[in-house]
Amino acid sequence: MAINGVVHAGTESKWGILEMSDFDAAVSATGNHEKIEGPIPTVDPGLMRDNTVKFGDGRFSAVANDFVSDKGGLRVLSFSDMVVRGQDLGWLLYAVCQNISEDAVAQKFEKTYTIANATTQPDFSANAGYFAQIGIYDTIASYHRAYTGCILRTLTLSADLAGDGLLRASGEWISGFTESTTTNFNTGTWDYNPQTYYNFNSSPTKKIGGNDVVLYGFDMTINNNAVRSGSTGANGVCETYSLGQYEITGNIKVKFDANVQGLFAADRAGTTTAIQLATGTDGELYNFDFTCASCLVQNVGDDYENEHGRALDVPFKANTSAVFTVTDAEDRTW
Amino acid sequence: MKVKASRDFQFYRLAVFGGEMKKEDYRELQAGKEVDVSASLVKKYPNIFEVDKPPKKEVKDGN
């Protein structure tokens, strides 16, 4: 067969999210995906392999005796540098927290995600919780990839005020279902959310220990430590996910001044500190708020070489409970 | 039929009910209130129960 000399640009590909309602539903090739602004995720197909040389194979590899299977495996889609648009954030936080309440105030529909000691988890096998199809629309029709029943295992949110200040995300989607590499997504729509952002350059609330701080940037990671549980059917797909333990950790870079110097003492004493980071106006459209009343600040670090002058790194770990709120004017009825 | 929802109802999105439940009813149930729904919904979804027939052991943690 002669070669095909048409070269596609990598940027002709795209990826998107399609909310699902049945946990074990088949791939939807025709659904309307919400396109994501950011690089295509890297995929670990989670195959079980045994390429060892077996007794009787002699001294060299004998592929005929190798084992490879996707049954029981976990597909991991790692994404990074995603620019979080208006309605994206609601899904991301739901997909990792798996715990939400949404109020019904028109034009607002504020979503509240609480993680606490008493937090439990949904029964995914009974279609509870949030799960989605992740589609990768590749450059050749009929060779698009689809992953169903995906939840987020980790989500990192960050903003760099030395840069554009926009909220960005990275993380890992996981799927315990069979990978499709031959889907054709040409029927459904793939549209971005409107070009609205969570910009920390317009952050009204940046508090550590109740004191206002001059924020230079932050990152925080929510990890639910999810693993697949159970295996069923001819394809050995998962039956549910286990969210073993929640962790929220991060680092906040701030200007060093009297408002934060007390953090060294809190670090050494192991006492807790309240942290609140927010952008937008409380309760109004595109407000995002992270509040943890009792964070441990650990290994507070000096930064004498920052372009903004004397700065401080404040690594933190949420303790007891943490609350995220997002107001995105989207009535999801979650 | 007057129904209420068990605690694990908080984990369910309206989309899961495939159009069988009205948005207003869903929100009321999420808020722990009583609503009138058809008997078929009660049969289909174990986390919705008749007000005077609560489940023997309310599901609290998805078990």
Structure description:
The complex is a heterodimer of chains A (334) and B (63). Chain A is 5% helix and 43% strand. By secondary structure, chain A is mainly beta. Chain A has one domain. In chain A, a hairpin with a 7-residue loop joins strand 10 (144-160) and strand 11 (168-175). The longest helix of chain A has 10 residues, at 88-97. Chain A starts with 13 loop residues before the first strand and ends in a 7-residue tail after the last strand. The mean pLDDT of chain A is 96. A three-stranded antiparallel sheet of chain B has the order 2-1-3.
Kindly estimate the percentage of residues of chain A that lie in beta strands according to DSSP: 35-45%
Largest interface: A-B, 18 and 16 residues
H/E topology pattern of chain B = EHEHE
Could you tell me the mean pLDDT of chain A? 96
Oligomer: heterodimer
Count of extended strands of chain B: 3
> How far apart are the first and last residues' alpha carbons of chain A, in Å?
52 Å
Mean pLDDT of chain B: 85
> What low-confidence regions of chain B span 5 or more consecutive residues with pLDDT below 50?
none
Question: What's the quick description here?
Answer:
Chain A is mainly beta. Chain A has helices spanning 88-97, 263-269, and strands spanning 14-19, 33-35, 42-44, 48-50, 67-69, 75-83, 101-102, 111-116, 132-137, 144-160, 168-175, 180-183, 190-192, 205-208, 211-212, 215-223, 226-229, 240-243, 247-255, 272-279, 287-297, 301-303, 311-318, 321-327. Chain A contains 2 helices and 24 strands.
